[in-house]
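Slide 14.
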Amino acid sequence: MKVLNLQCAHGHGFEGWFASNDAFETQLADGLVACPVCSDTHVTKLLSAPRLNLGNAKPPEAAPSQPPAGTSLEARWLRAVREVMAQTEDVGDRFADEARRIHYGEAAERGIRGQATREQAEALVDEGIAVMPLPVPAALKETLQ
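Slide 15: predicted structure.
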């Protein structure tokens, strides 16, 4: 198993696990490797040090300190999106209708998410219904296998 450090054209860094370097190259050529933040398929492999199994070698000296994992802006944004998705009901393309039903007391008040056109969102705002767009990365829209 090869664990590769990858980066999209927008500078988002992420890890990819592949059976071999050839498997990575094939998937990359087929457009199957995409950034989990922005879904960009223009991905490059970053340089990384190989793992050497040296048996009873002395422990390595302390590495230079790096920021704790998960503190990047992208990581915090993904964590926030996951939290919103976990605490809201996905009503799909019925979003505008369901938001109106909740606003006018015809349905139980709860957090919802879904899809609405620009016109639908503007109409909701004109009616005094607060809506907020939330771009969700493609990687979070489907379950991982």
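Speaker note: The longest helix spans residues 73-87.
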